[in-house]
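Lecture notes, part 5. Sequence design as translation. It can be helpful to think of inverse folding as translation between two languages: the language of shapes and the language of residues. The source text, in structure tokens, appears below.
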């Protein structure tokens, strides 16, 4: 493969902070009550793009060349950049912007990770994100092939399955998220999302029929309310001038999971001798036990029985991690008042200080007169 591909992917990864900046922007321009709905709208828009872009790309690929599609994608990105530069206003007021110079201590990623441990709530949130997004990243890296080989889905059925999850995700991240946030709160919404994730991962791990898999896909869509709720929860805790830093920490954990999740699932499949290697010449069968390739030198009765009865061990392990994340979510504050107690006190002190300065200035002006 051309080395330019890896170079361009690496450069793209260096600038893959779009979601961090978007979430920080949303936190700046919304209040605490509408913030979770705004986050849900952002993630729902992203989910909608995942639904439409593959279909549009496939259609254009049949009409034009790959170079045309790449050029068109670059043009769309350029238009997006120009729109942001000329049409999107700055979100953070001048008085809240930091006047300090950028130093290595501020941009050091390891320093940011060390700062997490100094704040109990941010540390807890990052731990929940790690335990929940690690199996999610692994799941989405392999479940397309998993559906084809283990359950016999055709290419059209896989496309319908993706569209089904995407449409339900849009509904969940807009309508359902708003309802849950209104009547239950951020913490409870996070717990609901983690519960759905645990159940759907377990269903993916034991499913041997298409019906169960479609049910699991629906639950996977409902579990998409977790991350917008976490982002809203974090934004309420963080100070106005630290939204980018805190959201960057959380998204950094997600980025770490994007690399470790697929490796974790692949290694778990390897441990249980489940081969997801796709061969286009081989016909796809629906019996998962016949599709489980076991190395003749390492075959054992236990692994054979386990692979036959539980076709997806990584998904069950992911359900275990999501369960731990759900348990940790119980440690989150029960109310925004408890969560913001320290922060609100700090703001009150700052407000009092500004008022005192205003009073002193007024008194000085009166005395001078």
């Amino acid at each position: 493969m051309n080395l330019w591909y890896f170079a361009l992917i690496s450069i793209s990864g260096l600038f893959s902070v779009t979601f961090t900046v978007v979430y920080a922007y949303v936190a700046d321009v919304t209040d605490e009550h509408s913030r979770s709905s705004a986050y849900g709208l952002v993630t729902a828009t992203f989910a909608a793009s995942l639904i439409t872009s593959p279909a549009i790309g496939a259609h254009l690929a049949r009409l034009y060349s790959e170079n045309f599609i790449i050029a068109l994608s670059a043009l769309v990105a350029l238009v997006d950049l120009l729109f942001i530069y000329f049409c999107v206003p700055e979100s953070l007021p001048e008085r809240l912007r930091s006047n300090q110079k950028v130093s290595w201590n501020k941009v050091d990623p390891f320093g940011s990770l060390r700062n997490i441990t100094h704040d109990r709530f941010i540390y807890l949130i990052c731990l929940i994100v790690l335990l929940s997004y690690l199996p999610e990243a692994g799941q989405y890296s392999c479940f397309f092939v998993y559906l084809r080989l283990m359950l016999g889905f055709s290419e059209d059925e896989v496309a319908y399955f993706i569209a089904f999850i995407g449409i339900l995700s849009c509904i969940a991240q807009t309508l359902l998220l708003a309802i849950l946030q209104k009547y239950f709160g951020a913490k409870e919404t996070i717990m609901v999302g983690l519960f759905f994730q645990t159940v759907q991962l377990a269903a993916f791990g034991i499913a041997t029929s298409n019906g169960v898999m479609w049910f699991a896909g629906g639950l996977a869509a409902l579990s998409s309310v977790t991350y917008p709720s976490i982002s809203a929860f974090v934004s309420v805790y963080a100070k106005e001038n630290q939204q980018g830093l805190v959201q960057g920490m959380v998204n950094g954990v997600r980025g770490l999971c994007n690399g470790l999740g697929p490796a974790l699932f692949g290694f778990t499949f390897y441990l249980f001798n489940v081969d997801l290697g796709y061969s286009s010449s081989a016909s796809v069968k629906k019996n998962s036990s016949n599709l489980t390739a076991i190395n003749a030198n390492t075959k054992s009765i236990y692994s054979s029985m386990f692979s036959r009865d539980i076709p997806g061990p990584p998904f069950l392990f992911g359900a275990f991690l999501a369960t731990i994340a759900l348990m940790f979510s119980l440690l989150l504050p029960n109310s925004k008042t408890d969560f913001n107690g320290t922060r609100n006190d700090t703001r009150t002190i700052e407000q009092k200080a500004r008022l005192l300065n205003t009073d002193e200035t007024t008194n000085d002006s009166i005395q001078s007169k």
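The translated text above is only one of many valid answers, since several sequences can fold into similar shapes. Residues 279-307, 339-360 have pLDDT under 50 and may be disordered.
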